[in-house]
């Protein structure tokens, strides 16, 4: 599968500089950026779901200092 995108000259220059800096093609740089963004958003969605479940179960967090005290640290 391939994609085509329109970039301004400034955007094209920035993309080419980034790709060169990381020794990859412009296409590979865009591919990596896309999948990194997808993974980040997926991680956020999973974290939000886990937090909602945590709260729904009546769980509460506490300061780390309490845990250290409990463990004599």
Task: Tell me about this structure.
- The chain is an all-alpha fold.
- It has one domain (9-70).
- The chain is built from three helices and no strands.
- It is elongated, with a radius of gyration of 22 Å.
- The model has no long low-confidence stretch (mean pLDDT 95).
Task: Please provide a brief summary of the model.
The chain is an all-alpha fold. 70% of the residues lie in helices and 0% in strands. Helix 1 (9-21) packs across helix 2 (26-56).
Keywords:
73 residues; 0% strand
The secondary-structure class comes to: mainly alpha
Total strand count, please? 0
Order of helices and strands: HHH
Annotation field: number of helices: 3
Uncertain runs are none
Distance between the termini: 55 Å
Strand fraction: under 5%
Overall shape: elongated
Question: Mean pLDDT score, rounded?
Answer: 95
Radius of gyration: 22 Å
Largest sheet: none
Helix percent band: 55-70%
For the record, the count of structural domains works out to 1
Write the layout of secondary structure elements.
Layout: H1 9-21, H2 26-56, H3 64-70
Helix pairs in contact: 1-2
